[in-house]
Amino acid sequence: MKIRYNATQAASFEAEVPGVMDAFRFISYCDDVFGIPECGQCHAPKDELRLVHRRTKEGYDYHSVECKKCHYSFKFGVTQTNPPRLFPRTKDGWVEPYRGGNAKDASDNAPQQQQSQSAPSDSGEQIPW
Ligand SMILES: [Zn+2]
Questions:
Q1: pTM of the complete model
Q2: Around ion ligand 1, which residues have CB less than 5 A away?
Q3: For a disulfide at 5, which of 1, 30, 41, 110, Cβ 3.0-4.6 Å?
Q4: Ligand 1 center–CA 16 separation, angstroms
């Protein structure tokens, strides 16, 4: 069966899956990453959120959803599985924008995963939600 997931205004994903259970898993995973309905800080609607991917010069990747209004963000971790998967860092919740300086902010930006050589280089790309 063919299924489609509308992730953002600009992007949808299609998958060919053998059955309902695979469709369920596909949609569940997409919802974990793209299903955030509103900003957790100011409650701006989904169309005020954007996906943000940043890559450090050392090759570390950061994935988050950022609110265009209050600039709080919700971060995703990366599993150590092959292939790696994003997962919502629900324990951290929505965090205030990084303003530099103190040790707490520095630890919030600790590397999550070393980037593999095969990944595309799209450093700093911001995708409209
Ligand atoms: Zn907000």
A1: 0.70
A2: 39, 41-42, 44, 67, 69-70
A3: 30
A4: 35
